[in-house]
Amino acid sequence: MRYGNGPQILHGIDLDLEQGSFHFLTGPSGAGKSTLLRLMYLAERPSEGNISLFGHDVQSLGRTRRAQLRRHIGVVFQEFRLLDHLSAVDNVALPLRVTGIKEETVMANAAELLRWVGLEEKHLAAQPSTLSGGQQQRLAIARAVIGRPALLIADEPTGNVDDAMAMRLMYLFEELNRLGTTVVIATHNQALIDHFGHPVLYLERGALTRIDRRNGEGVPVSLEEEGE
Amino acid sequence: MMARRPSILPLETDGSGRFLPWLTALMVYLAALAIGGAMSLSGAIDRWDAGLAGTLTVQLPRPVDGTPLAAKDVNAALDALRKTPGIVSATQLGDDAQAQLLKPWLGDKADALSLPLPVLVDVHVADGAAIDTDGLQKRLNAIVPGAAVATHDRWLGRLFRVARAIEVTAFAIVALIAVAAVATIVFVVRTGLLIHSHVIDLLHMIGARDSFVARQFQWHAFRLGLRGGIIGVVAAALTIAAFYAVGMMGANGGEQAVMPSLGLTANGVSAAVILAVLLPFCAGGIGLLTARLTVLGALGRLP
Q1: Do the Cβ atoms of B303 and A44 come within 8 Å?
Q2: What residues contact residue B248 under an 8 Å CB cut-off, 6+ apart?
Q3: CA-CA distance, B119 to B93, in Å (whole number)?
Q4: Which of B223, B224, B190, B1 is nearest to A87 (CA)?
Q5: Which chain B residues are closer than 8 Å to A3 by Cβ?
Q6: Which distant-in-sequence residues (6+ apart) come within 8 Å of A66 by Cβ?
Q7: Are A146 and A97 in contact (CB under 8 A)?
Q8: ipTM value of the model?
Q9: Neighbours of A206 (CB within 10 A)
Q10: How far apart, in whole angstroms, are the C-alpha atoms of residue B70 and residue A192?
Q11: Which of B6, B202, B207 has the CB atom closest to A90's CB atom?
Q12: What pLDDT digit, counting tens, does each position of A46-98 carry?
């Protein structure tokens, strides 16, 4: 993968995520983690190779089908990307609104989800910029999961919160994972990775390695290692 | 609870379309004036055409010494006219009628000036009848030397051509205005796309279809176009009414007879009312369609 005529950022990646799996993605800054995540949530087209998602070859799909596929992916962006002209509840409701679901259902789900992530009733109408970093993070998570995604991708979701909040967010992700959502979390937080013990994808200089946590050795990720 | 739907894209408040209603108003105003002018001219031509259709005017000049034409020559010419197949009637205009025709130029004392006027004969032709005007003129010349048959066709035809050219020019102006409107809307929409690129990018990521994003822009453009269109039409209607009032102000009967009537026919008034209602929606429609195509074109470049 390269941007335009720039240097190659990712190369030789052959990654297959099992449905319902939970992975951490880590590696040094500038290794290409965000680019890999962007490829996974269909924000980029690979300059070489293919992406297959939920059994569909993404490149062969039309724009409408690709939009529908994106609805099955929840993304927690590193910088949250909350819209300040909308209230907290309207931010969370956004993924449902774009699908054209009835307004009453949208609002009921959004309010319920905000309570699930621990935001109080008084925060529903608040502008995101008036909320704390942790509250904004939870808002972003609520928005990412409101569409009951089959794949949840989070880019440094605990980067702006204290340890207690980081643990709380991780338990939220685990809860979602138990409900069948495939989770990929990009993080630099080694303590978090060690604490939860999920498989780790290690990215360095554009190459992806799977850390076998049983013996601590890295092996290149391949299709043979994990099933469809 | 809270069963309301906020604007996902804050287009109303971003300032990119702040001047669009006024630009649209100006364009619709100019388009309405161009269309109004063309319709008014078309009405005037139709009235001239209706007034002159199926008529001929025959001039029987006085002899070279200026003495009045002999009654027997006039009667012979009238007989020749009435016997011509296709001519329904031939009536000599009396002195009063001739004086009335000259009044706008010479005033009330036209009849007292003892001018050596020719005898004028108003001829009505049956519908669809083809008169050999050259042959008729030759026959009349044999009775009254210098007799002339005026069919109005030649000058009326020239007038029609000029009028049609003006109409075509008016519609070309309207087309140019539409092109300018499209260019303006494309610019405004692209500015909006840039201002809200972070929102659009997010919508794209969460699975919004291109048509969903386009809808946000297209209805915004429609509302702005409609608003500007209404302002433009109202301003144009006031201007046309003012033109008409100023044109007729202080004109005496004679001047009014000479001045072309630029008012609309009954059908023209109906058409003008329909156009006045349609124009703002056309402006809105152009905005809607242009915005939609612009957004879809821009989003097509996203993955």
Answers
A1: yes
A2: B256
A3: 7
A4: B1
A5: none
A6: A42, A58, B303
A7: no
A8: 0.85
A9: 20
A10: 125
A11: B6
A12: 888 888 888 888 888 889 999 999 999 999 998 889 999 999 999 999 999 99
